[in-house]
Amino acid sequence: MKRVTTIALTALAPISWGSTYAVASELLPPDRPLFTGVVRALPAGLLLTALARKLPTGVWWWKAAVLGGLNIGAFFPLLFLSAYRLPGGVAAVLGSAGPLFVVGLAALLLGERARLRTVLAAVAAAFGVGMVVLTAQAELDPVGVAAGLVSSSSMAAGTVMTKRWGRPEGVGPLAMTGWQLTAGGLIIVPIAALVEGAPPALDGRAFLGYGYMMLINTGIAYWLWFRGIGQLTATSVTLLGPLSPLTAAVIGWAALGQALSPVQVLGMVIAFGATVAGQLAVGAPRPKAETFSSAEVTDRNVSMDLTGTPVRR
User: pTM of the full predicted structure?
Assistant: First the structure.
């Protein structure tokens, strides 16, 4: 039951990310993916780090920078670039390749067995998502497609390395999330200044969109995601990724008036079924005997991670 609860909470992250495409197209200023990445990541990272009241020490300064670069610094700008250049949920479908990247990297770096059932679930999910989006009406911009694929591979590498390095003793997911969002946001800042120049003028709709993306779509969602990585296998977590494009398709149909054909509906059923089957195929991670000092317990309470289990390697 605890694993089911963890999976359900972790699944809220990709479900939230599925709203990114609608928010970006309807509320945010156009053609500013780097600025959007900064506003989405940096304030949320600083807020979470302040709430956790803990900074990196020793090697975790550069480890946090690497993880922040993979999960945030490279992922965010490329994600928004693909969202701006591709229609509807086409950008989201490219993320469905992420589980396949993670399965391979997890086998190489984490020793997670690449089971045939897991690979088939990942392929079926990607196929189902493709049925949802890749219709005759979909226009595929080469730059947008390349950006989407690279962003997916960057996030996959970040997920695996987050699992491989775990967390330092006494540090909960709240602090780890804050470190990565802050590092990633800082990486994007100079690039945004050079490429896009001064920040754009923002109206009320933009403030609403950025506020939602900073607090809900990023701060809370990434905290749930990294918490899930600490308690589940990397493969199990990434197989929840197809929920993002499925959510994007549902929002496009319900809120943006985008029609769904019978083939697209069938694709959604296949992708969702593959996501559920993938969780059954992966199984629970091997338990590890761990003890916690009073300092670790105190930090977990401070970081509001009342149920998470720190991963130490």
Answer: 0.83
Instruction: Identify which of 20, 43, 10 has the alpha carbon closest to the alpha carbon of residue 249.
Output: 20
What is the share, in percent, of the chain residues with pLDDT greater than 90? 41
Output the pLDDT for position 70. 95
Contacts of 28 (CB under 8 A, 6+ apart): 36, 206, 209, 210
Q: Cα–chain-centroid distance for residue 4?
A: 19
Better pLDDT: 226 or 304: 226
pLDDT value of position 25: 82
pLDDT at 285 exceeding the cut of 80: no
Report the amino acid identity of residue 252. G
CA 106, 40, 21, 224 dihedral sign is positive
Q: Find out whether 224 and 301 touch, Cβ atoms under 8 Å.
A: no
Evaluate if residue 138 carries a pLDDT over 70. no
